[in-house]
Amino acid sequence: MAYWLVKSEPDVYPWEQLVAEKSTSWTGVRNYAARNHLRAMRKGDEVLYYHSNQGMEIVGIAEVL
Fold first, then answer.
1. Rg value, the chain, Cα
2. Phi/psi zone of residue 20: left (φ > 0), alpha (ψ -120 to 50 degrees), beta?
3. What per-residue confidence (pLDDT) applies to 62?
4. With bands split at pLDDT 50, 70 and 90, how would you rate the model's confidence at 58?
5. H-only helix segments in 1-65
6. Tell me: the pLDDT tens digits for 13-53?
7. Which residues face 57 on adjacent strands?
8. What is the pTM of this model?
9. Which of 7, 37, 41, 63 is a Cys-bridge partner for 50, taking CB atoms 3.0 to 4.6 Å apart?
10. Distances from the Cα of 19 to the Cαs of 1, 36, 40, 61, in angstroms?
11. What pLDDT does residue 55 have?
12. Distances (CA, A) of 65 to 3, 39, 41, 43, 53
């Protein structure tokens, strides 16, 4: 199992929205390195969800489905 750190601005896609939706797809990522990391994620890997800009802290833990 691997561990990953993903970030999102809380005003764009907050942790609470992910919890309410129960899952999401990370699409539209333009950064080459970030895209490669997303492709390397495997089912069961754990994800630390980081809010950038406001709060600047890990706000939750998710699992790659």
1. 11
2. alpha
3. 96
4. very high
5. 15-21, 32-40
6. 999 999 999 999 988 899 999 999 999 999 999 999 999 88
7. 51
8. 0.84
9. 7
10. 22, 25, 23, 10
11. 83
12. 13, 13, 9, 5, 27
